[in-house]
Amino acid sequence: DQQVKQNSPSLSVQEGRISILNCDYTNSMFDYFLWYKKYPAEGPTFLISISSIKDKNEDGRFTVFLNKSAKHLSLHIVPSQPGDSAVYFCAAATFTGANSKLTFGKGITLSVRP
Amino acid sequence: KAGVTQTPRYLIKTRGQQVTLSCSPISGHRSVSWYQQTPGQGLQFLFEYFSETQRNKGNFPGRFSGRQFSNSRSEMNVSTLELGDSALYLCASSSLYGYGYTFGSGTRLTVV
Per-residue pLDDT tens for B5-56? Predict the structure, then answer.
């Protein structure tokens, strides 16, 4: 049962344009969401996160939006750069009690064309 | 500040053998989690250790086990290896209660 879904396996955008990466979740107990970026042969690198008490968090070119009623979040990258080409993972967690594991989506491969 | 260190980086094993992977967390981090990444399955949670105690476990068979030492270093062991165990195994450490995960570069295990 995939609790975190990234339904589009890949996305290709032109350099300078906006990249929008989507993520859906099914578990309403999730209260913290993260985006990770991964290059081949490297571990995932933390990008940005958002708590369920917020609907937007911004960090430079990266903005994450959370729509709790739709159980949907998205990562916006503006403007997109060729160095952003990587696999992006959406992750969710419930930080209550002893449960601190991250549940990841399957990832989306972003290609930014020069 | 040194990052999360995983050794070895690459490993080739034969079916039926066992393997031990090592993870040294960032200094001061007491939580260590392990994940398996395979094509098409994304990252799947194996287990998490905090202060030498397994705090959480994913849906993997008993062939997968782990432990954490008093210095927070962690090892995971896979016994009776199967071809399907070929994957990138990632370790992540955290200082706070589940926040701020930092991943290592992983160990690429190939079972032949």
Answer: 999 999 999 999 999 999 999 998 888 999 999 987 789 999 999 889 998 8
Rounded Cα gap, residues B62 and B79, in angstroms: 9
Chain centre to alpha carbon of residue A80:
15
- The residue among A66, A107, A110 whose CA lies nearest residue B40 is A107
Q: Is B65 helix (H, G, I), strand (E, B) or coil?
A: strand
CB pairs under 8 A between A and B: 65
Question: Both tokens of residue B29?
Answer: 């981090």
Q: Say yes or no: B90 contacts chain A, CB-CB below 8 A.
A: yes
DSSP summary character for residue B83: G
| A84 near B CB under 8 A | no
Task: Measure A34 CA to nearest chain B CA, in Å.
Answer: 10
